[in-house]
């Protein structure tokens, strides 16, 4: 199959597709041209956003339960870990993680306050309270079921993206929301800001 280089504009807050519940992908359809095209479109759209670390299908206007976590997100998360933590957590995936019909199957009791932004809520940032660990069960782009236990940034991304599939944006529950200036954004990007 030829790889589509199609990419989409990222839908912004206020559009109904971001505020509704996305539908499950029928498993036999995962290999279809339509679903593979959507995945490729999501990958390309995410690649265009220098500061993006993940994207959910509703963000490109598709109300289906699919999200992608970039390889960069895992690399950033891995850098944040101690050697011991690296031994105890799953290896960094070789490419982006495609999550179809994802379900969060386990959440740590422990939560922490973390800075958060969103590609669909430009240019607001705020503080959210997220579980420190989250286990995700999903199907990959080949229809194979997998489980991934994430902590820190990855756990936060899993929760943020899963919320997207349920029509929830971080600004629905964040505190200390502020709109950043271009200078502050440049500063954040330098620090590999966690923007989804
Ligand atoms: Zn988002």
Textual characterization of the structure:
The chain has 196 residues and is of the alpha+beta class. The protein has one domain: Peptide deformylase (Peptide Deformylase, Alpha-Beta Complex), CATH 3.90.45. Helices cover 27% and strands 27% of the residues. It contains five helices and eight strands, in the order αββααβββββαβα. The protein has a five-stranded antiparallel sheet, sandwiched between helices. The longest helix has 15 residues. The two termini are 29 Å apart. It binds zinc ion. Zinc ion binds next to helix 4.
Bound molecules: zinc ion
The H/E string reads HEEHHEEEEEHEH
The CATH architecture would be Alpha-Beta Complex
- Form type: globular
Tell me the radius of gyration.
Answer: 16 Å
CATH superfamily: Peptide deformylase
Number of E-state strands:
8
The total domain count is 1
Instruction: Please state the average pLDDT score.
Output: 90
Biggest sheet record: 5 strands, antiparallel
What is the structural class? alpha+beta
Low-confidence blocks of residues: none
Distance from N terminus to C terminus (CA atoms, Å) equals 29 Å
